[in-house]
Automatic annotation (TrEMBL):
<dbReference type="InterPro" id="IPR001830">
    <property type="entry name" value="Glyco_trans_20"/>
</dbReference>
<dbReference type="Pfam" id="PF00982">
    <property type="entry name" value="Glyco_transf_20"/>
</dbReference>
<dbReference type="GO" id="GO:0003825">
    <property type="term" value="F:alpha,alpha-trehalose-phosphate synthase (UDP-forming) activity"/>
</dbReference>
<dbReference type="GO" id="GO:0005992">
    <property type="term" value="P:trehalose biosynthetic process"/>
</dbReference>
<keyword id="KW-0328">Glycosyltransferase</keyword>
<feature type="compositionally biased region" description="Low complexity">
    <location>
        <begin position="478"/>
        <end position="499"/>
    </location>
</feature>
<comment type="similarity">
    <text>Belongs to the glycosyltransferase 20 family.</text>
</comment>
<protein>
    <submittedName>
        <fullName>Trehalose 6-phosphate synthase</fullName>
        <ecNumber>2.4.1.15</ecNumber>
    </submittedName>
</protein>
<keyword id="KW-0808">Transferase</keyword>
<feature type="region of interest" description="Disordered">
    <location>
        <begin position="467"/>
        <end position="499"/>
    </location>
</feature>
Amino acid sequence: MRQSSLVVVANRLPIDDSQAPDGACEWRRSPGGLVSALHPLLRHTPATWVGWAGGTGPAPALPDVDGVRMHTVALSPEDLRDHYEGFANATLWPLYHDAVEQPQHHRRWWEAYQRVNQRFAEATAEVAEPGGVVWVQDYHLQLVPGLLRAFRPDLRIGFFLHVPFPPPELFMQLPRRAELLRGMLGADLVGFQRVQAAHNFAQLVTRVLELPATDRRIGVDDRVVRIGAFPVSIDTAEMGALAARPDVAARARRLRQDLGDPRQVILSVDRMDYTKGIEQRLKAYSELLATGDVKVRDTVLVQVAMPSRERVGQYQILRERIEREVGRINGEFGRVGEPAIHYLTQPFDRAELAALYRVADVMAVTPLRDGMNLVAKEYVAARVDDTGALLLSEFAGTAAELSQAYLVNPHDLEGLKQGLRAALRASPADVTQRMRAMRAHLHEHDIRAWARSYLRALDEGGALVGRLSSTDTNPDGVARVPRPATAPTASPATHQAGG
Ligand code: ADP
Ligand code: F6P
């Protein structure tokens, strides 16, 4: 088994099995914030990525992608149901997002969570060089740091949570709260998106485990675990370069024509998730149409909603409700050839996303709760001419950084409508001033700055930082690699090309 000095461990590998338009087999970058953040960073580094390839059945042996080794962990149908769809996405996900949907608790799900975390820890132990650095990602794998430390104490272990970490009153609902906290404390450094999350964690560790904790350090046995906020970002330069490409600019012009040359285009790009506030946004838009504040010929809304976690009941119900509402709004306010909402559920390559960002006069990013929200950052990075208004929820981690956006509370329907109206009617001078400030921030605080600050803190000396990729040679994010001998069985939980 080949070993690496840097191992990234995440539930999902950075590529998904997709079908190219010509019918060829293609592995395409998986959508989702975690992959968008880490994939450009690791390209051409001697790292190994341990993760799941989507689907169930034996783990396919994947070739390296952009020089990064893919080490696949297999999930059985029961693991998929009870670990990924169950404990990760029907217990932890809603609980960590303010319980906007009711978290469910089942003992069988907890068993699967332990089992799958154990499998990830074992797979990581196999591929990590002696004394190497392991970087564990996100809520699916909170037990991995502790499990890994037990049999590989030589490793330096980092853990980063991409989603919010909830306040004590919510986390205390978890029947296995102590085990989850202990699992994370197996790391040398526990990173969060926001300072408040690190504070919540320190409070919980004191309360549940009775360990001495501040918002920066926790004493565990004879070790010190450091904690802190490291807001994740994007490859700002990559998105800027992509958006500035002549073919992308031409595509944006064409998209505008195809939309009927409206005066203003509003865009939203979300995974279809109840945390993203899609229903609230549609309601606000529909009320603005009803009062005549927004007119169909003048303005169009493009809503990209990529289906996600499609076998989880709450997600199925959400999709039905959104599609019913889009149908109702188009039926009520659209005209022949002029729908009020252009609704798209397909995956797009990076160039097409960049063209969409370029065509959007207003970008509406209004989640009810979001760890960060990289779509908002991508939009800003793509606005190379300093135009475009970002309507942003106060409850997205991004709001702490992009405070010049038009900030709204998505729970407040009147506030949401007012914010949308303000963004649509803002003067060009105001829009440009705000956009320039946000772009300057993202120029400094890009994905490499994030990784540098995290890995320096983890590595205490920063030797690792020099090994990260500094250039991007594949901005479209498409990797054409031969299909592996054992292809994973397609599952509704994978992102599927073409819908
Ligand atoms: P989350 O991690 O909850 O999905 P983020 O906004 O942080 O939310 O990240 C979503 C990422 O997925 C972004 O990089 C975005 O460009 C990408 N994405 C979203 N929808 C699509 C789509 N339809 N096709 C391709 N990529 C998408
Ligand atoms: O940001 C949270 C997250 O779970 C990430 O781990 C991932 O990038 C994204 O949402 C997509 O989710 P999934 O892997 O379940 O499709």
